[in-house]
Amino acid sequence: MDFNIDLLLIPIAYLIGSISFAVVVSKCMRLPDPHSYGSGNPGATNVLRTGNKTAAVLTLIGDALKGYFAVMLARVILGDESLTSTLSSWVLCGVVIAVFLGHVFPIFHGLKGGKGVATACGILFGINWILGLATLGTWIIVATFMRYSSLAALAAAVFGPIYFVFLFGFQPMGIALVIVCSLLIWRHRSNICNLIHGNESRIGSKKKAS
Description:
- The protein has helices spanning about 5, 10-15, 20-30, 45-50, 55-80, 85-105, 115-125, 130-145, 150-170, 170-185, 190-195.
- It is mostly helical.
- The termini are far apart.
């Protein structure tokens, strides 16, 4: 496929990422805007603070699927060489970064997006299911024993790129994942401060809006 056409996958991925399922699901289920309570973060963990588990699950699934869909769409169009061909791999890297940026800075929602945990998970599964499963397992283990969603996300963000290197060696996609995971950690900077000072909310707790 022509190189210029391939590049269109990057802005398309950004638009896909810009769909905030926390906002969409909340509107459909007549729940408050997720920006208006709790942490103010439009993500599954904050939506769960409404007490509506169905809405939280739908948000989680939607945000994960958009990351997965954007990557898989690109892989189908670019072909099997998208993880090995130099040109195609860099385009796929752009798609990975773009869909994540779309979630964090969504054009459809005033650039006020989520922290990207579910979307990053979907991206990893789109790249390789073993990579996704290993990183998700890290999140589940930390979340189960420590009961902090943010701490689990930080651990997964650190280990995700490491798992990729173990599985595939040093490739351009590794750089893209480092960028994505660094942004994810940056988005959790307030959570890091709360963890240090012992003020971070545990999974399932209700946090009053500040």
